[in-house]
C-alpha cells in the first residue's frame, strides 16, 4: 500500500511537466475552451503538488533539479500565449545591424525600405505593435541580442533566448535558496513550481525573470553600493521599477547617491526610449496611460465614472496619479520604515498592480517572489495563477473583461482585507 502511494506521488510529479509541455505547445489564447482548461488545471496541480513535496525529503538538490527540469521542458515552445517576443526580435535585428529601434515604428521602417534586406517580414506580420514606437530599454535589447546570437547556433532565435532564460532562472532558484536557507520546500515551491513563472517567464520569454534576479541581489547583498547597482539595473529593465525607490532606507549620503543613480538611469532612458517624448507619448508608452487596458483592478472604476463625461481616455492617468499621491503619503508617514525591505517591496508592487490599467499575466512574476515565505501563500498564489490565465479570455470576448474584473475584485479584495488586518496587528 505504501509503495503504491509513493508511486502515485511520483506519477503526479511526472504528469505536471507534461501538462506544462502541452500548455505551451498546444495552447491557444484565441480559443476560450483551451484557456478555461489551462486556467483550471494548472493552478490545481500547482496547489495539490505542494502537499506532496515531502517526497523529496531533505534532498534539496533533487528538488532544485526538478525546478530546473520544469523549465527545460518548455524550451522550444512557440509563442502561443504572447506575441511580444516578435517585437523584441524585430528590435534586436535592427540593434544587431547598428540601427536604432527607437526612432521609427516597424511600419515606417518598411515604408522607408530600410527593413526589406534584413528578413524582418515574418516578424512584422507576427508582432502586435507595428505602429508603436519601441518601449524596450537598452539593457533588454542587449539581453535579447545575446539570446538571438545563441539561437543562431541552433537555427532558432526562440530556443536561444529560452535557454538563456533557463540559465537565469537556475541562478534565481539557487539565490532563493540562499535568501531563505532554512525554509521548507513548500515555500520554495511558490516560485520553483509556479506555472506563471515557467510559462510566461521561460516559455513566452518575458523579462520579469530578470527583474527577479535584480531583486534577489538587493535582498541578499548587504552593501549599499550593491543595492545602488542592483537598483540601477532594475530601472534599466522596466520603467515601473523606479517606484521601488520608496522602499529603500538609509542616511543622507545614501539618498544623495541614490539620486545620482536615478539621474543616470533616467538619462539613459531619455537618450534611447524617450529620444522623442512626443512620439512616445502618442504611439509608445503613453498608450499605457490612456488607451491600452487589460485586467486592471481599480482603474475600471475611474473608467466608468469618466465615461459619463466622455473623458474615459484619462482613466489611466487618473489611476496612476492617485497611486502617486498614495506613495508620497506613505513615504512621508515613514510607513515603509516599519516594514522589512521584502515587505516594503511587496506593498509597493501590490499598489502598482492595484492601480495599473494593465496587468498581463507575467506582471505577477516579481509579486510571486515577494510572496515566498508568506504564511498560507499557496492559496492566494493558486488563485493568482487562475486569474492570470483566465485573463486571456479577453482576447476572445471583449465583454469578458467585466467577468474577469468582478472575479478579481472578489478574490483579491477578500485576500487584501485579511492582509490589511494582519498588517494592522503587526505594525
Automatic annotation (TrEMBL):
Keyword Membrane belongs to the record: yes
Keywords assigned by UniProt, alphabetized: Membrane, Transmembrane, Transmembrane helix
Keyword Heme among UniProt keywords: no
Regions that span the bilayer: 7-26, 32-48, 60-81, 142-167, 188-205, 225-247, 254-273, 285-306, 313-331, 343-365, 377-394, 400-416
Protein name: DUF2029 domain-containing protein
Naturally occurring in which organism (per UniProt): Leptospira mtsangambouensis
